[in-house]
Amino acid sequence: MNRTLAPLLAALLLATAAPLTHAAQPAEAAAPAAAAEEKVVYHINDASVARVAMNNVNNHLSASPNAKIVVVTHGKGIDFLLNDAKDDKGEFAPQVAALKEKGVDFRVCRNTLKSRKLDDSAVIMEARVVPSGVAEIGKLQSQEGYVYLKP
Questions:
Q1: Dihedrals φ, ψ of 36, to 5°?
Q2: Which of 3, 30, 64, 147 is the most exposed place for a label (fewest CB within 10 A)?
Q3: Mean pLDDT for each consecutive 10-residue tract of the chain (151 residues)?
Q4: Distances (CA, A) of 102 to 17, 62, 110
Q5: DSSP assignment, residue 37?
Q6: What is the strand order of the sheet 68-76 is part of?
Q7: At a CB cut-off of 8 Å and minimum separation 6, what does 52 contact?
Q8: pTM listed for this prediction
Q9: CA distance 58 to 62
Q10: Are the C-beta atoms of residues 127 and 96 closer than 8 Å to each other?
């Protein structure tokens, strides 16, 4: 081999090897992020989508069994979490109870209850009442790292 080409070839090999080393670092750095806890808040302000939303939550848990899911309701969205709530498919309570057993947390807006002249006892036992539904969503997103989904 020509003596003038050998140093150039060596320099070229070193130059091309360096990016491969650096390219591997982002993948390694991304690995811990993938292990982060998945936290999702589902926002329901219209009970007409409650069944679809609960099906979405169930599908979500099938794909990500360890996901931490909170369903926050306010306005007309609380209706499916009231005692004896039902639609043309029957009562909502069994579907809510099944999701609760999987770790889903259901929250109902007290402001909505007050505006309807209802107290906390109007809410099924699987759900808990929070001072404000919209404030709860804001807190979950800004302070607790939840991502937002609106079915």
A1: -65, 150
A2: 3
A3: 58 53 50 74 98 98 98 98 96 98 98 98 98 98 98 93
A4: 49, 10, 25
A5: P
A6: 127-130, 105-109, 68-76, 39-46, 147-149
A7: 151
A8: 0.77
A9: 6
A10: yes
